[in-house]
Automatic annotation (TrEMBL):
Keyword terms: Acetylation, Cell projection, Cytoplasm, Exocytosis, Golgi apparatus, Membrane, Protein transport, Transmembrane, Transmembrane helix, Transport
An annotated GO cellular component: midbody
Membrane-spanning residues: 109-127
Lineage start: Eukaryota, Metazoa, Chordata, Craniata, Vertebrata
Protein name from the UniProt record: Exocyst complex component 3
A Pfam family the protein falls into: Sec6
Gene: Exoc3
């Protein structure tokens, strides 16, 4: 029969196994050991064969329990206790019972399997798993997070212990383990749902801590509980090798990751504008960041710190997160193609605002925040690159601004309306104000960053100013040349040339003011040469301007100067009267020239009038025929010298300049012409020469020719004798005759 065949196979297998065990002589000593091992295996197999009866037994036990008189009360009580409490109580009870029932066959695997079986029975009798999952889901949706978490923990405890017992019984049995895992599959979704709610609260923790601090505390309690369970599970893993699915959850770490992402998003999300939509986009962006970060950290310190467990060190963690997020954002901004003003805004914020009382240095954040211990938001290398780019951009900007300012100013020079006057009535254009306002703005901006940059910008401004003034000089010269082509144009040439001259004085004062305000005393020497160059250029512009204005005067005087020392003049021409009126009329305009230049201009006008008058004498247009003509001519010269003296004294009023010496030359020449005794002529001429030693022989010859009574021999004798005479010039005398050329007789002249 089949039974007999099975027995024979069993015996054959057994014989084969025994033969395998006893192949060597030394194995005979282990016979007893082999016998005990086989007995244990036999007992294990028998225990497994008794499972159906155990199931039946446990069902009967539970059924009988519920059929007891107090079963309703028991059911009622069960509603008020957790599954874990029930399970633990029954587990302890059945451990004792199982020990008593099977003390003759107490193998651990058998006991473990029996326990799993009992827990399964308890669960199926007392609970409806899908119902608990639904309840937990509803609690999560209602925001009852603590209660939801309590239920979730109970479910996880059940699953984890069942899996643990299965693992202990047979760690390689993945099929049964997967069955348990599948049965409790919805639990992972619940855990994820709960986590999602927790992270939403964590994301809004800075708001929640003010509006609903209890909710935040609940979330933190849940995270803390999970951390403890994680630690417990990891400890058990070290001892047994078993860890439930989904562990460790690491919710604390995830919470900090969520906070970190939230902080980064908050920083990045503050940029509302772009350069295209708003030129001040970066300033606004940085100001919003400053306000948000300060507000958030104040909330974190005053409120959040009280709600989080102390060992979370939440304020310092958040401080570090904000610092890192800001460093990342600032590095991103630094890498963009920033304009010069944007570079300044960024560097000012990074190097100054960040550590100031407006932000991290706020007194309400101390002592927790120590600005000296904060790492730089961007590296020195990046700062240097930005500064280099700023200086390069600023250089080209300044060159462009100065060029544009000069072009704009030149357009004013050809206007038909007079330039504006300052409060003292001096003509000016807006050029110096525009240039120095631009310098000032850039220096103020640079000063926000640091002293070193401020000095560099000042040096740059003055360096560019030097080049600019050379262009200004060239343009003023072209202006004069264009006017000379057509003196009717521009209509207000004189007034605008006065404004150009005055601008030179304004530029000088502005350079001094700028250096005094922005340059350290020890740096003065580095700019002394540059400053001297600029002053020299400005003096040249002013001097050439004044000279061109005097040219203007003397072009108008030319017909009247041509009348001097002619027959018409001798007969009573009013040429000098007209000259004086014309000069005075021009000087009414010249009153709008600032003092240092006006004073120079008055002296130069006086000098040029005298030079032109003496030149008229030396041109030998007239030769007096007799003593009466000489007397009349000389007296006229003395009278006209007095007219000039009066005019220029009036024009130089208040300047304190002694200008009478120039007119004395005319009078001294008049005395030579007036002399009635020819024998005294040498003495008179020698007196003239000793006073004015730059008088040349040709000047004396011309003067004697005008006198009209000196022979060629007399002229020769006087000139030769004079060469040996001593000179006694006035120490203040500025040579005047060297400017005057005496025409030599040409052939055409002789023919006439």
């Amino acid at each position: 029969s089949t039974m007999e065949e099975t027995d024979r196979e069993a015996v054959a297998t057994a014989v084969q196994r025994v033969a395998g065990m006893l192949q060597r002589p030394d194995q005979l000593d282990k016979v007893e050991q082999y016998r005990r091992r086989e007995a244990r295996k036999k007992a294990s197999v028998e225990a497994r064969l008794k499972v159906p009866s155990l199931i039946n037994l446990s069902s009967q036990v539970m059924s009988r329990t519920f059929n007891l008189t107090g079963n309703k009360e028991l059911k009622k009580n069960c509603l008020h206790i957790t599954f874990r409490e029930v399970a633990v109580t029954i587990f302890e009870y059945f451990k004792v019972v199982s020990f008593q029932l099977f003390k003759n066959n107490s193998h651990s695997c058998f006991l473990a399997f029996f326990l799993v079986l009992l827990l399964s029975c308890i669960y199926s009798l007392y609970f409806d798993f899908p119902e608990i999952v639904r309840e937990t889901h509803d609690l999560i949706e209602q925001g009852e997070l603590l209660q939801a978490h309590r239920k979730l923990m109970d479910l996880e405890w059940s699953r984890d212990n069942l899996m643990y017992e299965q693992y202990r019984m047979d760690s390689k049995n993945t099929h049964d383990m997967n069955l348990i895992h599948t049965y409790f599959g919805d639990m992972q979704k619940l855990s994820d749902e709960l986590a999602k709610q927790l992270w939403m609260v964590v994301q809004r923790s800075l708001v929640t801590v003010r509006r609903d601090p209890t909710l935040l505390v609940s979330v933190l309690r849940i995270i803390d509980r999970e951390e403890k369970i994680d630690r417990r599970m990891l400890d058990r893993k070290k001892q047994t090798g078993f860890i439930p699915p989904g562990r460790p959850k690491n919710w604390k770490e995830k919470m900090f990751n969520i906070l970190e992402r939230t902080v980064s998003t908050r920083i990045e999300g503050t940029q509302a504008d772009t350069r295209e939509s708003d030129k001040m986009w970066l300033v606004r962006h940085l100001e919003i960041i400053r306000k948000y970060v300060l507000d958030d950290l104040l909330v974190a310190k005053t409120l959040l710190d009280q709600r989080f467990p102390p060992h979370y060190d939440i304020f310092n963690r958040l401080l570090n997160m904000y610092h890192q997020a800001l460093a990342t954002r600032m590095q991103e901004l630094a890498a963009e193609d920033l304009e010069a003003n944007e570079i300044v805004s960024l560097l000012t914020w990074v190097l100054n605002t960040y550590n100031s009382a407006e932000m991290m240095g706020n007194s309400d954040l101390s002592p927790e925040v120590d600005v000296n211990s904060l790492d730089p938001l961007i590296s020195q290398n990046v700062v240097d690159q930005l500064l280099s780019k700023y200086m390069s951009t600023l250089t080209s900007n300044i060159i462009g601004w100065l060029r544009k300012a000069l072009e704009t100013d030149k357009k004013d020079w050809i206007k038909e309306t007079e330039p504006e006057a300052d409060q003292d009535g001096y003509y000016q254009t807006t050029l110096p104000a525009i240039v120095f306002q631009m310098f000032e703005q850039n220096l103020q901006v640079a000063a926000q960053i640091n002293e070193d940059l401020k000095t560099k910008v000042l040096l740059l401004c003055l360096q560019q100013m030097n080049s600019f003034l050379t262009r200004y000089k060239d343009e003023a010269q072209l202006y004069k040349e264009d006017h000379l082509k057509n003196r009717q144009y521009p209509q207000c040439y004189v007034q605008y040339m006065i404004a150009i001259i005055n601008n030179c004085q304004t530029f000088k004062e502005s350079i001094i003011s700028l250096k005094r305000k922005y340059l350290k005393t020890e740096m003065e020497d580095t700019l002394s040469i540059s400053h001297a160059n600029m002053d020299a250029t400005l003096d040249i512009i002013a001097k050439e301007g004044c000279s061109s204005l005097l040219d203007e005067v003397f072009m108008d005087l030319e017909p009247h100067l041509n009348e001097l020392m002619t027959k018409k003049w001798l007969m009573g021409s009013n040429a000098v009267g007209t000259i004086c009126v014309t000069v005075e009329d021009y000087f009414n305009d010249f009153a709008k020239i600032k003092k240092p230049y006006k004073k120079t201009m008055t002296l130069e006008a006086h000098r040029r009038v005298v030079v032109e008058y003496i030149r008229a004498i030396m041109l030998k247009r007239i030769s007096f025929k007799n003593a009466e003509e000489r007397k009349e001519g000389a007296e006229r010269m003395i009278k006209e010298a007095e007219q000039f003296r009066f005019l220029f004294k009036k024009l130089a009023a208040g300047s304190g300049e002694d200008t009478e010496g120039l007119c004395d030359i005319i009078e001294a020449i008049a005395e030579v012409i007036k002399l009635t005794d020819p024998s005294l002529l040498y003495l008179e001429v020698s007196t003239l020469v000793s006073k004015y030693p730059d008088i040349r022989d040709d000047h004396i010859a011309a003067l004697l020719t005008v006198r009209g009574d000196a022979s060629r021999d007399m002229k020769q004798t006087i000139i030769e004798t004079l060469d040996q005479g001593p000179s006694q010039p006035n120490p203040n005398y500025v040579p005047i005759f060297k400017e005057i050329t005496v025409p030599t007789l040409t052939v055409p002249k002789l023919l006439k």
